[in-house]
Design a protein that fits this description.
The protein is globular and about 65 Å long. It is α+β, with helices and mostly antiparallel strands. It folds into two domains: 14-232, Ribosomal Protein S5, domain 2; 238-410, Alpha-Beta Plaits (2-Layer Sandwich). It contains twelve helices and twelve strands. Strand 6 and strand 7 form a beta hairpin. The strands form two sheets. Strands 1, 2, 3, 4, 5, 6, 7 and 12 form an eight-stranded mixed sheet that branches. It has a four-stranded antiparallel sheet with strand order 9-10-8-11. Bound molecules: alpha-D-galactopyranose. Alpha-D-galactopyranose (GLA) is lined by residues 62, 66-67, 69-70, 201-202, 204-205, 370-371. Alpha-D-galactopyranose binds at residues 62, 66-67, 69-70, 201-202, 204-205, 370-371.
Length: 419
């Protein structure tokens, strides 16, 4: 799927319209919301501004911990400076009316008729999934109108769906004073995607979008949900470069679900030898070496990846906190190798991007990010080598694969919240 033109300036609070008057992105979204839905301001309020909320939630890149979250493992993502923005106001009835600026499409559903979710366009299912999960947990959002826009590339492994879910939940939480906790919100957004979109995703993306903090990566134990923020000195002497291969695989979600089942099967195999094993997170490397020969080769490789990747995340978080970026970068390289050969979620385009980046002086580490089978790589690079890296990647990628490569520098980490 192609990325629609970003509707918002990079800094949502400092945009100015073509006429030259300064108008922030939230104000533009509020105005567009009023223009699009002709029902007028919320029936309960005479002040249109006061009745409208605008929420943002960022996408993410994952620095370490690929495909470990659904095995109860560790991850180390960081948010990016691209986000999904949702402007909402109460509709005064049971109906939800949505407008996606990026898809140039409308969708309507009734809060009471959850069965109709599968008939909605995919982007609207994320929103309907969130309202359904809120209701399932006893919250009572009322009908609303929402305008959705964003600049997280779609289907590129940068978590545009989690950003949409989280922005929706944060906005609804404020609009209807639902009193949602952050961890609870991340969980219900994950469930919205699993139940209503059919991707059996882990918790990483929703958690990172909601709990990520500026200037930090997020170390998360995906079983206990204990987490800590680890300083990431972006904008000082290093930066992150995202390279979008342009490859979008329709089959990605079925392959993703297949990997999840493989991990569960491998965990069941090892549980025969130790009843305390619930998921691959619990499997010691020695057990794989000792008993793994009896396991199907593919499942053994999946298990080795998850177990070694968890170790890399734990070590990586310590190295990052100590500022040892060289050693941290080596772990990113090792993570990619393991995802590509053991877990088999990379592809020729991602491998080429990693190989090109690794040949550029000043690159500390690089790997695929997200579910894989296409999408993006993320590269940690010394700031003074950034432009050289981008040029090398763009030129050499074009030589091997026809399409142009989109690269961009993550300048800062956005935070989810109200604008
Ligand atoms: C997708 C999922 C996450 C995680 C990653 C792979 O982004 O949504 O839960 O499993 O893939 O690390």
């Amino acid at each position: 799927m192609d990325q629609p033109a970003p509707p918002l300036a990079d800094d949502p609070n400092a945009a100015s319209d073509p006429a030259g008057t300064t108008e922030t992105a939230p104000e533009r979204l509020q105005r567009a919301l009023s223009r699009h839905f002709e029902t007028g301001p919320s029936p309960n309020s005479s002040d249109e501004r006061a009745s409208c909320v605008v929420a943002q939630a960022p996408g993410r890149v994952n620095l370490l911990g690929g495909h470990t979250d659904y095995s109860g493992g560790f991850v180390l993502p960081t948010t990016i400076d691209r986000a999904v923005y949702v402007a909402l106001r109460a509709s005064g009835d049971e109906t939800v009316r949505l407008r996606s600026v990026d898809f140039d499409e409308d969708a309507t559903f009734s809060l009471e008729a959850e069965t109709a979710i599968e008939e909605l366009p995919t982007w609207a299912r994320y929103v309907a999934g969130v309202t359904a999960e809120l209701r399932r947990r006893g919250y009572a959002p009322e009908g609303f109108e929402a305008l959705i826009a964003g600049n997280v590339p779609l289907g590129a492994g940068l978590s545009s769906s989690a950003a949409l879910e989280v922005a929706t939940a944060v906005g609804l939480g404020e609009l209807f004073s639902l009193g949602l906790g952050a961890v609870e919100t991340a969980r219900l957004c994950q469930r919205a995607e699993q139940e209503h979109v059919g991707v059996e995703c882990g918790i990483m993306d929703q958690f990172s979008s909601h709990l990520g903090r500026a200037g930090h990566a997020l170390f998360l134990d995906c079983r206990s949900l204990e987490h800590r923020h680890v300083p990431l000195p972006l904008a000082e002497d290093v930066c992150l470069v995202v390279a979008d291969s342009g490859v979008r695989r329709e089959l990605a979600s079925s392959k993703y679900n297949e990997r999840r089942r493989e991990c569960e099967e491998a965990a069941r195999f090892f549980a025969q030898f130790d009843a305390s094993i619930e998921s691959l997170r619990d499997v010691p490397e020695a057990l794989i070496e000792k008993q793994g020969t009896e396991l199907d080769d593919t499942l053994r490789r999946r298990a080795r990846h998850v177990v070694s990747e968890n170790e890399r995340v734990e070590r990586g978080a310590t190295l990052l906190a100590d500022g040892d970026l060289e050693a941290f970068g080596q772990l990113m390289n090792a993570s990619h190798a393991s995802l590509a050969s053991g877990y088999e979620v990379s592809c020729a385009e991602l491998d080429a991007l990693v190989e090109i980046a690794q040949s550029v002086e000043g690159v500390l580490g690089t790997r695929m990010t997200g579910a894989g089978f296409g999408g993006c790589t993320v590269t940690l690079v010394r700031r003074d080598a950034t432009e050289h890296l981008r040029r090398a990647m763009e030129a050499r990628y074009r030589e091997r694969f026809a399409p142009d490569l989109e690269t961009y520098v993550v300048e800062r980490n956005l935070k989810a919240g109200l604008l």
